[in-house]
Amino acid sequence: MSVLDDLFRRVPALLMARRNLSRNRIRSGLAVLGIIIGVLAIASLGMFGTTLRTGATQQLGDIGNEISVSPNFQEGIEELTERDVDEIRRAVTDGAVVPVRSESKLVSRGDRQTVTTVYGMENPGALYEAEQGRVPDRLRQGALVGSGTAGLLDVEPGNTISVDGRTYRVAAVLAEQQGISLVSPNNAVIVPIEDVNGTGYSQVVVSADSGQAANESAVAIREALNEREERVSVFELQSITAGINEFFGILNAFLIGIGSISLVVAGVSILNVMLMSTIERRQEIGVLRAVGVQRGDVIRMILAEAGLLGVAGGVIGAILAVGAGVALNAFVLNDPLATFQAANLLYIVLAVGFGVGTSVLSGLYPAWKAANERPVEALRK
Amino acid sequence: MNHIIELQRVWKRYDTGGEVVEALKDVDFHADPGEFVAVMGPSGSGKSTMLNVLGLLDTPTEGTVSLDGQDVTDLSDREMTVHRKRFIGFIFQSFHLIPTLSALENVEMPTLFGDDPTARDRATHLLERVGLGERLDHRPDQLSGGQKQRVAIARALINEPRILLADEPTGNLDRKTGRSVLDLFDEIRREDDVAVIAVTHDPQLGDYADRTVELIDGRIQ
């Protein structure tokens, strides 16, 4: 005896249901197809939403974790002083503070040259990663070249470039930054801060470990520096990323709502199938009742049929949805494994649950109707 | 009293759109264990209604039904179902086997919903007894009419009933096959002490019955 036989012996309603469904395979198949489509729609639209959100988050990069402090020009303050930077350092408990000076300069290597933004930074390692070479913790000599500029001038680590006549050895070519960034390095050159003219700073970037830490830092900086006068303006993108997240939440709910409609349609088709099949089997159900099968058992049997349709449709739909998710993530994010994350698992469980629930719910009326038919009426020829 | 089933002054009226049809009129009837009673009569005489009342599938408008000395006239649907399962085996003219189940599963069917570990053995034994030991796994559409009716008889016997109710049991069978089915009834009646009540207009059946009751226009003649 196989496990299945054992199960059927324990739950006879399942045996009867399984046999009844195999009676008209095409009809059962079409009912299952309806559920498959519904489950697939809910699960894959949900996962589509997750993919969109992940993609958007990647585009935004770590911007939610960064804040930018710049002088308040409206109050006549043109640059941030060493004192301001110290105050910012004191205010930020959790994160790196990177003071920045910037200028436009002529950068050249051999006969190639371009005018580009040159940032002076003491500790660019807090913000950037190298694609080639190494970004030192403290930039004392040498230059870091953004990927765009590197392409333009055809440089790699070890080459020398000239910035406004001054020669630098290239320490690293920076990794291209995908997202939006407060200080984008892509088309820039970064040199030690002393090499950029001036005593103050054009902005200070704070890179925190999380959006929340960034937000706390922003509050602390405002309190510390803007107590007496509005010395600085603090720019944080965390509120924007929160808004974007909220938007994607709504979008997802909307997509799943659309998917649910198809499941409701599938439910109606199961209702129809079950109703037809119970009407066709009227006499049989009458015989069951005559030989001593209770109403409750008839209801269980028909609900088991509906449930089996739902489970079959749900499982197949879930498998197809995972396939669709893998394809979508491979295409959009270049990362098929992004499918396997908690949010998506939730959508799949939700979709299968909805599918089975809809099926069983649709079986209720036919089951009730079949069980309450008087056997005498059902057996009448 | 040792009547296994008894109808006393039973009336059955149907309201068919303003017109009241009296299907059974003051019927008194009884059967004893081991007795073979044939109920004969033209169609529309109320035979089937009487069988339904005897089989606890229908309740009389008036009068009482007693089963094994117990008044079962006004039972709930649940209780009637329990009594049907315990006391009564049904055999129908068109067999009414479940087409998706094997012969063995059809015989087991009345025991399926409920814990009954010996049911499979009993079903196998019963099918062997009715001469279908070789056909346990056949589906109904792989069986002849006579074989189907034998499966139906085995199904009716699975719960060791006290009464066998047969509605035109030979109606869909040729004469020879019908005769073998009736021989089987005779054997069951004798060996198992079961009351067999058969509704029919097959005169052949009269030869087997201990007693024939004639029903015309809802009245026992």
TrEMBL record, chain A:
InterPro entries recorded for this chain? Answer: ABC3_permease_C, MacB_PCD, Macrolide_Exporter_MacB
Q: Which residues form the MacB-like periplasmic core domain?
A: 28-223
Q: Where is the ABC3 transporter permease C-terminal domain?
A: 258-373
Which of UniProt's keywords are assigned here?
Answer: Cell membrane, Membrane, Transmembrane, Transmembrane helix
Compartment annotation: Cell membrane
**Membrane topology according to the record:** Multi-pass membrane protein
Q: Which GO terms describe its molecular function?
A: transmembrane transporter activity
Gene Ontology CC: plasma membrane
Keyword Nucleotide-binding listed? The answer is: no
Transmembrane stretches in the record are 28-49, 247-275, 308-333, 345-365
Similarity comment:
Belongs to the ABC-4 integral membrane protein family.
PANTHER family associated with the record: ABC TRANSPORTER PERMEASE YTRF (PTHR30572:SF4), MEMBRANE COMPONENT OF TRANSPORTER-RELATED (PTHR30572)
Q: What is this protein called?
A: ABC transporter permease
Q: Which organism is it from?
A: Haloferax marisrubri
TrEMBL record, chain B:
Question: Which residue numbers delimit the ABC transporter domain?
Answer: 5-221
An annotated Gene Ontology molecular function: ATP hydrolysis activity
Q: Which InterPro entries does this one have?
A: AAA+_ATPase, ABC_transporter-like_ATP-bd, ABC_transporter-like_CS, ABC_transpr_LolD-like, MacB-like_ATP-bd, P-loop_NTPase
The alphabetized UniProt keywords are:
ATP-binding, Nucleotide-binding, Transport
Provide a GO CC annotation, any one. membrane protein complex
Write down the Pfam families for this protein, in alphabetical order.
ABC_tran (PF00005)
Q: Which Gene3D superfamilies match?
A: P-loop containing nucleotide triphosphate hydrolases (3.40.50.300)
Domain of life from the UniProt record = Archaea
SUPFAM superfamilies, A to Z = P-loop containing nucleoside triphosphate hydrolases
Show the PANTHER family listed in the entry.
ABC TRANSPORTER ABCH.1, IMPORT ATP-BINDING PROTEIN
Q: What name does the UniProt record give this protein?
A: ABC transporter ATP-binding protein
